[in-house]
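## tool: complex_structure
## caller: assistant
## args:
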Amino acid sequence: MMQVWNIAIKELNDGLRNRWLLAISLLFAILAAGIAWLGSAAAGQVGFSSIPATIASLASLATFLVPLIALLLAYDAIVGEEEGGTLLLLLTYPLSRGQLLLGKFIGHGLILALATSIGFGSAAVAIALLVSDLDIWLLIQSFSRFIFSASLLGWVFLALAYFLSSKASEKSTAAGLALGVWFLFVLVFDLSLLALLVFSKGQLNPDLLPWLLLLNPTDIFRQINLSGLGDGSAMNGVMALGRDLPITNPGLWFSLFIWLIASLGIAHFALRRRAI
Amino acid sequence: MNLVELQNVSLAYGRMEVIKNLSLHLAEGEVLGLFGHNGAGKTTTMKMILGLLAPGSGHVQVFGNTPDHTEVRKRLGYLPENVMFYPQLSGEETLTYFARLKGAANHQVGELLEKVGLTHAATRKVKTYSKGMRQRLGLAQALLANPRLLLLDEPTVGLDPVATQELYQLLNELRQNGTGIILCSHVLPGVEPYISRAAILAGGQLQAVGTLSELRRQVALPTRIRLGSLSEPEHWQTRLSGLGFDSRCIGRDALEVLTHNGARRELLNTLINSSEAADLEVSPPSLDDLYRHFAVVPAQEKSQ
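## result:
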């Protein structure tokens, strides 16, 4: 376990040294505060509207940003070490490939969790301090759920990035693959699901469609946050399918957790098979 | 006990066989020089000893264990060819990180930096290091936790002549303390006095292995005799030709004669009895000659 921790500390220190943690935290804080106060500007209302509306907007933002940041943080975790010449050296130490992967995951995971907590947490603190007549308990509950699920979503994409990094022979290839994965889950998947709905003309089993949402971790993340807001009115577009999903909120958490374990598993498999 | 044992090891990448039936061993306190041309299989052999590559057939054992065993890795040090480190870390931070991974005591970091002459640059980022400095840091890294087995792949690359001699002296000290060392190198001059045995690889096959004396006995390569400070080298050339020795002029006042064992004594007697030959230098076949004989000549014959 000591070896895993040594790797994790090195990654965390790198994240502090190259200002990743600071940059992501600031980005999240500014965007979260902006969404909280200006999110309803399109409807002609400036200022804080409500906690459910803020969380719904933040969830949409996080769906785009968190996977992208996680992929950027970790796409070169393995192939970069190899190109830098340090992977060969590391693997001659009393350190298994699994320990190397887990160490990197914990290090990067901590950076992401800290950035999410500091960034979105500071927006929550600002709301608590500046908005009167606020249900503080609802604020804490909603933001805690949002921050933890955003971190979990980021961890899933970290693990996917390790898989890509273990498979790629060059850093540039890994970067391209990471962008491809981001497009697939953030943009293409939901569009494909909509296309499927339209072109199947009701021929697809209606009980099956909601389950397809579980094939995309970003959709699970949104389900967790939107279904936690009460009546489900915030669910629109493809997310509306989620209303028919016979899974409770803990079930959605469990699905995202399964995504994490499975992604780490295939990343470990790919790293074990990588020729050095 | 042998520190390293390779028995009939073969390895192929796809259909290309890169190591063919290789058997080697390394004992405690021994320095084995592993020599061969590019692609001869030296680095692949190292990687198998390190447990990074599994042989297709045969057995590799290190300290009597499989090479990827954790206990094995705690007791070996490795310096890769063209060693690279994290550019954003200083020399001291780099060594501290690797010391933690190896389970080495913290005080070793400063000691090793001093041993390889990098104390003055300890706090500088590695990206500012010259190639020679990186190589010295790599050596310090390989020496963490006092390894009983050292694998050095081209350790003298980037080192100046003084640093190269210092490295060889250091290896000599380690050898005397019982450390087994495998040293891969293209740079043959200078290494000869520091190796216990030489293994010559060509095309993935072991061409020869043994002490230099054993290898010299195996082949009938001529001894090189050099006569210096001659006033009339041309006169000597004619005289030696009359005695049946071919010679060639080197510079203005020296001659070189290549002679085989049988005729060597006769030639030496002639030279010693002559008052004219002021400088006399007798060189047995060098490591370079042996390498050419075992590795280069077979490769050339194969290509013809």
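## assistant note: The longest helix of chain B spans residues 287-303. The two ends of chain B are 43 Å apart (CA to CA). Handing back to user.
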